[in-house]
Design brief:
This protein has six helices and two strands; from the N terminus they run H-H-E-E-H-H-H-H. It is mainly alpha-helical. The chain has a two-stranded antiparallel ribbon. Strand 1 and strand 2 form a beta hairpin. The longest helix has 26 residues.
Length: 180
């Protein structure tokens, strides 16, 4: 019997957020799982930024290179489009703390995890809950407030709200734990 998996921009972003929740549950005993929290959170953030930036035109977030190959616009380009309200109901406004968290999750951690150079790397993980707190705030607004051309069902929306709440709850516990 054949089985199929179906993906679209939003379900992929939701799936990444769900995986982040799974790893948030394990970081207390396995601090190395912060890597997966970061990768999944960034993937979700990027996915929802693409969904908002594209609006009703999927091709608006695809660039064609001189060699004819197409590629997705960068996260920075998608975020810029969201902040200019291209494709969204209203422009995404981020705080200075959220911009700091976005820069950190992308440039200080996610990119280094995804493009890991040989060697060793020790990371103080106690600062991650603060970063994740701000990232979750941005994901919530992108996914539920600015996403005008959402194609998620009511069931998916409820699931999205649940997983956002779950991530915020677990992250809050971790933030308290690390502050002790």
């Amino acid at each position: 019997m054949e089985r199929w998996a179906k993906y679209d921009t939003e379900s992929n972003a939701i799936d990444s957020l769900e995986k982040a929740a799974l790893f948030l549950k394990t970081v207390k005993d396995n601090p190395e799982d912060w890597k997966w929290v970061v990768i999944c959170m960034f993937s979700s953030l990027y996915g929802f930024a693409i969904q908002v930036a594209k609006g009703s035109d999927d091709s608006s977030v695809i660039k064609v290179a001189k060699n004819g190959h197409s590629r997705l616009i960068s996260f920075g380009e998608a975020l810029k489009d969201c902040k200019r309200s291209i494709g969204a109901r209203t422009a995404l406004v981020t705080t200075e703390h959220e911009d700091w968290a976005i820069d950190n999750i992308q440039n200080q951690f996610r990119n280094k995890f995804e493009h890991y150079n040989p060697g060793s790397w020790s990371i103080e993980v106690s600062g991650f809950p603060v970063i994740i707190y701000h990232i979750l705030n941005v994901i919530r607004r992108l996914s539920l407030v600015h996403n005008f051309y959402s194609h998620i069902s009511e069931e998916q929306r409820e699931s999205l709200e649940y997983v956002l709440d779950e991530c915020e709850y677990i992250n809050g516990k971790l933030k308290s734990l690390y502050a002790s």
